[in-house]
C-alpha cells in the first residue's frame, strides 16, 4: 500500500512525456518557418538534419536513465557519475544559469502573445511587466504546491499548445502550392552551407530533450518511464516541427514568409479566415506559458540535486511540506524576474537578448559532457558484447560531435563569453569544496 500511494504522488508516463515535449516546444517554434524562409525550402532539410541530433541525444539520455534510474539531476548527475564532482558542478552551474535566463525570456514571449487579446500589453511597459511578473509567480506558486499539480498543468498546456500546431500542420497540407517550394535554395550559399546554417537554427528547438531525467526521484518506475517519455516526447515534437514547417512553407512564398512576424497566424488566416490569428496567438501564449511552467520545475530540481551532494549552498535542498524544493524555485524565479524586467528597460534590451543567446550555449555544454559520460558509465555499470559496445560508442561520438557543432554555430563572441561564464563558476566551486572540507574536519 505505501508503494502504491507513493506512485500516485509521482509523475507517470504522459505527464513525464509532456515535460519533455512541453519544454521543447516554446514560443520560438511559432516563428521558425519565417526564420527558415531566408534559406528557401532547403530549410526543411535543416529540420531533418537537426532531428538526427535530437534523436541521438534523446537516445543518450534515455540509455543513461536506464543505467542510473534513481538519481536526480539529469545532466549534472550523469556528468558527475562519469567525470566526478568538478565536471558535474560546472555542468550544473551552466545549466542552472541557462534555465532562469530562459525563463525571463519565456515570460516576455507570453506577454507578447497576450497583447493580441489585450492591446494594452503592447504599448504599456508597466502593464506588460506586471503581467510577466504575475505569470512567473503564479507558476512559481503552482510548482511549490506539488509535483502532481505541476505535472497536470504541464500535460494540459502541452495538449493546448499542440492543437494550433497540429491544425496548421495537417489542414495546411491541403493548401500547399508546389511552386512555393521553389527556388530550393535562395540563401546565396552552397547547399551544404545552407543546410548547416538551417540545421544550427533548428537544433536549438530540441533543447529540453533531457528534462524527464532531472526529477527522476519524482517519476514512477523511472527505469521504464523516463526512457519511454524521452523518446516519445522527442518523436511528437519532431513530427509537429517538420509537418508544420512543410505546411507553412508550402502555403506562403518564401519571399513573403521571411518578412512575416506571425507566420503561423498568416497560415491560419489562409486556412480558416481572419479570426484564425486569435486561435494561433492563443497557441503561442500557451506554448510560452507551458514551457515556463516546466522550466520553473527544473530550475528548482537542478540546484536541489547539487545541494544534496554538498556542491551547492544547503539552502537549495530545503523542501517544504509538499516535498518540493521551494527555496530553490523561489530564488530562480527572483533571478528570472529581474531578467524579464530588463527587457522593459530600453538601455538593457540588447544585453537581455545577448544573455538569452548565452543561455542557449550554456545548455549545450551539458550535452557534450553527457555524451562522453555515457561511454564511461556504460563501461562501469554493464558488461556489453562487442556489437553493443560499437553501438554505444557510435551514439556517444555522434551526439558529442553534434553538440560541438551546435556550439560552434553559436558564433565566436557567444562561445567566448560562454567560456568566461564557465570559468566564473570555478571560484564558487573552490569556496564550496573548502567549506565542505572544513565542516567534515
Account of the protein in words:
- The structure is a single chain.
- Helix content is 75%, strand content 0%.
- It is mainly alpha-helical and 441 residues long.
- It has 18 helices and no strands.
- Residues 1-5 have low confidence and may be disordered.
Task: Provide the fold topology.
Blueprint: H1 2-8, H2 13-24, H3 32-36, H4 43-67, H5 75-83, H6 85-114, H7 120-123, H8 125-145, H9 147-171, H10 191-203, H11 222-251, H12 254-257, H13 263-272, H14 276-308, H15 326-342, H16 349-381, H17 386-408, H18 412-440
Helix pairs in contact: 2-9, 2-11, 2-14, 4-10, 4-11, 4-16, 4-17, 5-6, 5-16, 6-8, 6-14, 6-15, 6-16, 6-18, 8-9, 8-14, 8-15, 9-11, 9-14, 13-14, 14-15, 16-17, 16-18
List keywords for this structure.
single chain, 441 residues, mainly alpha, 75% helix, globular
β-strand percent reads under 5%
Number of strands: 0
Q: Which spans of ≥5 residues are poorly predicted at pLDDT below 50?
A: 1-5
Distance between the termini: 42 Å
Q: If you compute it from the alpha carbons, what radius of gyration comes out, rounded to the nearest whole angstrom?
A: 21 Å
Q: Tell me about the biggest sheet?
A: none
Taken in chain order, the helices and strands follow as HHHHHHHHHHHHHHHHHH
Shape: globular
Rounded mean pLDDT score:
84
Number of discrete helical segments? 18
Percent of residues in helices: over 70%
Which structural category do the helix and sheet elements fall into? mainly alpha
Amino acid at each position: 500500500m505505501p508503494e502504491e500511494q507513493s506512485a500516485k504522488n509521482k509523475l507517470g508516463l504522459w505527464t513525464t512525456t509532456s515535460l519533455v515535449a512541453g519544454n521543447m516546444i516554446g514560443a520560438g517554434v511559432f516563428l521558425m518557418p519565417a526564420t527558415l524562409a531566408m534559406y528557401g525550402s532547403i530549410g526543411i532539410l535543416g529540420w531533418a538534419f537537426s532531428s538526427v541530433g535530437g534523436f541521438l541525444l534523446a537516445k543518450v539520455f534515455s540509455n543513461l536513465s536506464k543505467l542510473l534510474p534513481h538519481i536526480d539531476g539529469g545532466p549534472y548527475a550523469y556528468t558527475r557519475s562519469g567525470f566526478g564532482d568538478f565536471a558535474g558542478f560546472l555542468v550544473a552551474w551552466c545549466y542552472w544559469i541557462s534555465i532562469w535566463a530562459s525563463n525571463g525570456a519565456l515570460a516576455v514571449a507570453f506577454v507578447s502573445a497576450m497583447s493580441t487579446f489585450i492591446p494594452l500589453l503592447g504599448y504599456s511597459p508597466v502593464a506588460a511587466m506586471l503581467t510577466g511578473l504575475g505569470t512567473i509567480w503564479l507558476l512559481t506558486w503552482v510548482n511549490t504546491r506539488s509535483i502532481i499539480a505541476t505535472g497536470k498543468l504541464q500535460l494540459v498546456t502541452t495538449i493546448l499548445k499542440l492543437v494550433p500546431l497540429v491544425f496548421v500542420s495537417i489542414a495546411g497540407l491541403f493548401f500547399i502550392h508546389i511552386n512555393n517550394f521553389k527556388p530550393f535554395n535562395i540563401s546565396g550559399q552552397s547547399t551544404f552551407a545552407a543546410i548547416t546554417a538551417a540545421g544550427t537554427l533548428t537544433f536549438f528547438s530540441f533543447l529540453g530533450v533531457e528534462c524527464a531525467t532531472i526529477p527522476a526521484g519524482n517519476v514512477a518506475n523511472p527505469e521504464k518511464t523516463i526512457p519511454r517519455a524521452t523518446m516519445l516526447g522527442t518523436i511528437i515534437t519532431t513530427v509537429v516541427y517538420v509537418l508544420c514547417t512543410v505546411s507553412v512553407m508550402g502555403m506562403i512564398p518564401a519571399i513573403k514568409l521571411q518578412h512575416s512576424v506571425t507566420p503561423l497566424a498568416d497560415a491560419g488566416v489562409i486556412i480558416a479566415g481572419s479570426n484564425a490569428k486569435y486561435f494561433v496567438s492563443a497557441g503561442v501564449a500557451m506554448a510560452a506559458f507551458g514551457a515556463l511552467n516546466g522550466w520553473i520545475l527544473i530550475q528548482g530540481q537542478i540546484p536541489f540535486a547539487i545541494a544534496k551532494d554538498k556542491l551547492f549552498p544547503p539552502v537549495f535542498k530545503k523542501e517544504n511540506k509538499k516535498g518540493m524544493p521551494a527555496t530553490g524555485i523561489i530564488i530562480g524565479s527572483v533571478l528570472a524576474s529581474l531578467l524579464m524586467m530588463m527587457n522593459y528597460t530600453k538601455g538593457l534590451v540588447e544585453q537581455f537578448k545577448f544573455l538569452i543567446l548565452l543561455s542557449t550555449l550554456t545548455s549545450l555544454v551539458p550535452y557534450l559532457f553527457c555524451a562522453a559520460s555515457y561511454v564511461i558509465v556504460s563501461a562501469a555499470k554493464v558488461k556489453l558484447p562487442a556489437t553493443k559496445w560499437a553501438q554505444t560508442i557510435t551514439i556517444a561520438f555522434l551526439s558529442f560531435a553534434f553538440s560541438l557543432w551546435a556550439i560552434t554555430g553559436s558564433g565566436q563572441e557567444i562561445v567566448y563569453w560562454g567560456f568566461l561564464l564557465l570559468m566564473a563558476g570555478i571560484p564558487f566551486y573552490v569556496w564550496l569544496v573548502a567549506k565542505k572540507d572544513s565542516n567534515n574536519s
